[in-house]
Design a protein that fits this description.
By secondary structure, the protein is mainly beta. It has a single domain, classed as Beta Barrel (OB fold (Dihydrolipoamide Acetyltransferase, E2P)), CATH 2.40.50. The chain has one helix and five strands; from the N terminus they run H-E-E-E-E-E. It has a five-stranded mixed β-barrel with strand order 1-2-3-5-4. The protein is globular.
Length: about 90
């Protein structure tokens, strides 16, 4: 019977989703907090194979809209969730 050496620690890594999350850039054109939606004029969204344009996105969770205002330059991540383009991360760009 072979005895393997004990493992005392594992390297700290980010979850795979965090490592591959593609961020895009845009400008806030409209906020519809009551319906959890945002209109962005954005550059290319690589993970959705989408060219630059202006469009409305759902936002999940809606609290991501807190603190945003029209005209803010933002970085964001969007996904196709159940057939709807949805922002799942957003922050004001530095």
């Amino acid at each position: 019977m072979a005895i393997s050496a004990p493992i005392y620690a594992e390297p700290v890594t980010q979850p795979a989703a965090a490592q591959t999350r593609a961020m895009s850039e845009g400008v806030v054109r409209k906020i519809d907090a009551a319906n959890g939606k945002i209109t962005l004029r954005h550059g290319p969204i690589a993970n959705l194979d989408m060219p630059p344009m202006s469009m409305v996105f759902r936002v999940q969770p809606p609290e991501l809209l807190d603190g945003l205002k029209v005209g803010d330059r933002v970085t964001f991540h969007a996904e196709d969730i159940d057939g709807a383009y949805t922002v799942t991360a957003i922050q004001v760009a530095p």
